Predict the 3D structure of the following.
Amino acid sequence: MSKVLEQSGVDLTGENKLICNKGNIIGKAILTCIGMKKTAHGWIFHRFKRTSKRVNDLNKSLSTLNEKMDILFKHFIEISSSSETSEREDVDDISEESTTETFCGLSQPTQI
């Protein structure tokens, strides 16, 4: 480890070097104390949780469903906004017709 750090340009002066050999082995108590646990595949961190293939497949299907829902929402918003503008145009046309009818339906003021 120190060789890698030295090659990376890290200054290791004042650091203690630990050399592991048959006489200097880290025990189970220390490994469990620092948060490691023993599994069939070796030592892993205690907080590490391995995800199963089914969970990965479920996550993939959920992400594709989310993408499809986003597309559907975009289409819905586009359709609803276009229908609102056409409804507004229809309402504007109707209101213009009604105002012209009202103005045309008024009789000329009589002079006294």
Summary: The CA atoms of residues 104 and 110 lie 16 Å apart. The mean pLDDT is 73. The first strand starts at residue 36 and ends at 39.
